[in-house]
Amino acid sequence: MIQCKHIDQIFLIPITIWTLVQSTFLTAQFTRAFITCLIGIRYIGLVLLVHGITYMISSYIFGLLARYIGRIGCFVSAAVFNYAMIVWMYFWEPNDQQIIVLYIISGVWGISDAIWQSQLIAAYTILYSDSDPTTVAKYRLWKSVGSLLTYSYASYITISLTLFILTIFLTVSMICYGFVEIHVRWKNRGKEQYIAID
């Protein structure tokens, strides 16, 4: 097993895997199950273009907002966006008159994807780069595991089961990240008390 110098790095593994599970879902399963089936393969590029544009803009915006709402606020926002789109896709009955919905889903998913990708690497570097030089390597490893997981099951299960798996995975990831925030704040409070006593 990979050594983690900090116990809370173990709790970051699910959310790190999640960042690529959700991204891979969009490129592998959303494009196949929704775009190709509904309007044809020729629209995949246009729909994903909306994802890219919202991703680019949101990375910048949430980079600025992180100062005011913190990492936890950013992650909760991303989770709310993902939950909303998962529920929408689960209950939505697509037809070819609702092409705009594909662009909306792709755009909102781009917003959440930007938050996950930019804020998680920031969390890793802020929390651990001074004490663990392998932090970014661990981050990349677990992201690769997320991609491997999603591509390995993507062709074999239905979209409704995939959406259920995404919901469970996101929930577990957010709970584990909550433990990380609690642990980091607890450690920092202990350091502040130690400094005050000295």
CATH superfamily: MFS general substrate transporter like domains
Query: Rg, please?
Result: 18 Å
CATH class: Mainly Alpha
Number of domains: 1
Structural class, please? mainly alpha
Largest sheet: none
Low-confidence stretches: 194-198
Gross CATH architecture: Up-down Bundle
**pLDDT average, as an integer?**
87
Question: Oligomeric state of the chains?
Answer: single chain
Quickly count the helices. Answer: 5
Kindly identify the CATH topology.
Growth Hormone, Chain: A
Level of helix content?
A: over 70%
General shape:
elongated
What does this structure look like?
85% of the residues lie in helices and 0% in strands. By secondary structure, it is mainly alpha-helical. The protein has a single domain, classed as Up-down Bundle (Growth Hormone, Chain: A). The longest helix has 48 residues. The C terminus is likely disordered.
Summarize the structure.
InterPro entries: Ion_channel_UNC-93, MFS_trans_sf, UNC-93_regulatory. This protein has five helices and no strands. The chain has helices at residues 7-38, 44-91, 99-128, 135-153, 159-197.
Which features does this protein show?
disordered C terminus; elongated; single chain; 198 residues; Growth Hormone, Chain: A; mainly alpha; 5 helices
Topology, element by element:
Elements: H1 7-38, H2 44-91, H3 99-128, H4 135-153, H5 159-197
Helix pairs in contact: 1-3, 1-4, 1-5, 2-3, 2-5
Organism: Adineta steineri
Protein name: UNC93-like protein
InterPro entries: Ion_channel_UNC-93 (IPR010291), MFS_trans_sf (IPR036259), UNC-93_regulatory (IPR051951)
